[in-house]
Amino acid sequence: MRLKDKVALVTGASRGIGRASCLALAREGASICGTARTHDDLEALEKELTALGIKAHTFACDVTKSPEVAACVKQTVSDFGRIDILVNNAGIGGYRPFLDWTEDDYDRIMDTNAKSTWLFCKEVIPHMLTQGGGNIVNLSSVAGLQGYPNEGIYCMSKSAQVALSQSLDREFYQKNIKVSLVCPGGVETHFALGDGRTPDGANMKGFSSAEDVAEAVLLSVLPRSRSRIVNVIMRPMNEQT
Ligand SMILES: NC(=O)c1ccc[n+]([C@@H]2O[C@H](COP(=O)([O-])OP(=O)(O)OC[C@H]3O[C@@H](n4cnc5c(N)ncnc54)[C@H](OP(=O)(O)O)[C@@H]3O)[C@@H](O)[C@H]2O)c1
Questions:
Q1: Is it the case that residue 202 has pLDDT exceeding 90?
Q2: For the chain, what percent of residues have pLDDT higher than 70?
Q3: Identified catalytic residue from 106, 148, 154, 173
Q4: Using one digit for the tens of pLDDT, what is the confidence trace for 60-107?
Q5: Residue ranges of the domains in the chain?
Q6: Does domain 7-234 correspond to CATH entry 3.40.50.300?
């Protein structure tokens, strides 16, 4: 139980990597606040987490809306007393030729992926400073490290997370706030549907699993006094670098 007495707030907890991360952190004893928009999925997650014997709450929140983010963080601190780990995982993507993207697409993707990461960091970091430290994990992507055709706006949003993580790491590591970036390639989740991939999963064979990525999240936040994990790049076995 390497995370006993730690409290983790995980966004995008209703499915995929966020859900798997909640379970991985809980198995190490962390208390969990999981947030997303889909109430039924959150309820099922809360039951599963509680069955592991840890304290768990879920909270419906649209991560693009600053009042909802502030309320989510306030509620977590009120329920658990502190926040040791923040996992900024909620995200959306999409595949479209560059000239077909609309301003609405831009706002939706940038707000969900980039603005939400900023909003949660802004709300949580003051608590971490008061507590004397914490861990932040930002779920970016290999698409934040290099551009891909038909994914222009998604790549922009993911590279914004890379830039923010690097800035926060340099600004706060001496205050014992450790900021980690996890950059997966293809992962077999709802997110990866489209661009020829279908729910039967046949053409996602060889992709990483959500649990693989959750292990990287866990590794990033395990207590260690002499070092911090800054960047994890993961590639599925069917993908070149
Ligand atoms: N799958 C991949 O191939 C892959 C590769 C690299 C990086 N990533 C990154 O990994 C992260 C998780 O993706 P995933 O693969 O686990 O996707 P997923 O299965 O589609 O899950 C996405 C999560 O984000 C939540 N979400 C989306 N919009 C939201 C909003 N406005 N407010 C609150 N929650 C919202 C969803 O919950 P609700 O719909 O219930 O709100 C869901 O829990 C993303 O940031 C993605 O960019 C994924």
A1: no
A2: 99
A3: 154
A4: 999 999 999 999 999 999 999 999 999 999 999 989 999 999 999 999
A5: 7-234
A6: no
3-class DSSP string for the chain: CCCCCCEEEEECCCCHHHHHHHHHHHHCCCEEEEEECCHHHHHHHHHHHHHCCCCEEEEECCCCCHHHHHHHHHHHHHHHCCCCEEEECCCCCCCCCHHHCCHHHHHHHHHHHHHHHHHHHHHHHHHHHHHCCEEEEEECCHHHCCCCCCCHHHHHHHHHHHHHHHHHHHHHHHHCEEEEEEEECCECCHHHCECCECCCCHHHCCCECHHHHHHHHHHHHCCCCCCCCCEEEECCCCCCC
pTM over 0.85: yes
49 has a pLDDT exceeding 90: yes
Residues with CB under 6 A from ligand 1: 12-18, 36-38, 41, 61-64, 89-93, 112-113, 139, 141, 184, 186-187, 189-192, 210
User: From atom 7 of ligand 1, which residue's Cα is the shortest distance away?
Assistant: 141
pLDDT in tens, 118-137: 999 999 999 999 999 999 99
